[in-house]
Amino acid sequence: MSAICHRCGAFDPSGIVFRGERIPFCSTRIYCPKCHVRLEEKCLLGILVLNVGLGLIGFLSLWLNPSSLVGRVFANLLLLQLVLIPSTVVHEFAHAIVGRLSGLTVLRVWIGRGKTFCRANVFGFDTKFKTIPMGGFAFLSHGIETKLRLRYFLAILAGPLSNLIILMCAWNLAAWREFDWGRSIQLRNLIVVVQIMILVENLLPYRIQTAVGRISTDGRTLLQLILSKSPDVLNPNYGFRVVNHTSQPQTFTK
Predict the structure, then answer these.
(1) pLDDT, tens digit, for every residue of 150-161?
(2) How many Å separate Cα 220 from the centre of its chain?
(3) In this structure, how many other beta carbons lie within 10 angstroms of the beta carbon of residue 150?
């Protein structure tokens, strides 16, 4: 059944590529992949602005009244967002570093979503920092086919493993008997909470729509590498191709 994108008017004769989303207070709307990415990025930006806004209100409340319950809760929400950024950076560069050590080619690393506001060479990797500091991707490719499944498995496992290591290190520092967002600033506990959030999000086996197409989470890719005869990461049609002299199949991991 054919479909038309409600945002840009693009036409999908098969009706398979486009996606329907239930918008609050509106009927279901159909989006092409590009418009769906824009919708998702707007939602992420909205969540970010809300968290930062509430966080600033929280710290202002604490400045006016150090015993403010609302101030502590909102301040902890902002700290949660701030801890998420470096945790994501560690996750993506773990993919990149182990990928390189495993003999894969690291094409680039993205930190965040949306438009690029800064591009730099970080640890020898072409890195783009995006305007919405939520999530990220590591773009991998390969040339030599030897032990390819194992090399991709190690590179993709490295991301969640880095967060697990942080979680284990921070666990002993956390004060769980005092875990109450309205009681005090919970930075030590939040470090653990953020690592758990990242692990759950990345290890659940599902696909998401991104600016570079539909991709699998780390969990789904790891399962494919173990169980599937043709994992996505080994498929030349997976991801996208950059026009260059190698024209090697590429993959990217969250």
Answers:
(1) 999 999 999 999
(2) 14
(3) 11
Nearest Cα to Cα of residue 111 among 94, 95, 88: 88
153: its two tokens:
């498995």
Q: Report d(CA 17, CA 32) in Å as an integer.
A: 7
**Residue of 110, 130, 132 whose CA lies nearest to 49:** 132
Tokens at 247, concatenated: 């024209």
Look up residue 15 and give its DSSP letter. S
Low-confidence ranges of the chain (pLDDT < 70): 1, 15-17, 19-26, 209, 211-212, 236-254
Write out the two tokens for 229.
């005869």
Under a CB-based contact definition with an 8 Å cutoff, are residues 187 and 175 in contact?
no
Packing angle, helices 148-171 and 187-203, rounded to 10 = 160
- Asked if 80 contacts 193 with a C-beta cutoff of 8 angstroms, the reply is yes
Q: Which residues contact 99 (CB under 8 A, 6 or more apart)?
A: 105, 106, 138, 140, 151, 155, 158
Give the separation between CA 215 and CA 52, rounded to whole angstroms.
29
Longest Cα–Cα distance in the chain: 63
Reduced to 3 states, what is the DSSP secondary structure of residue 29? strand
CB of 232 closer than 8 Å to CB of 253: no
Q: How far apart are the first and last CA of the chain?
A: 32
CA 205 to the chain's CA centroid: 14
pLDDT digits 0-9 by tens, 77-99: 899 999 999 999 999 999 999 99
pLDDT at 208: 78
- 77 HSE (CA, 13 A, CB side): 20
pLDDT of the residue at 222:
95
Distant-in-sequence, close-in-space partners of 93: CB < 8 Å, separation ≥ 6: 109, 122, 123, 125, 138
The model's pTM is 0.84
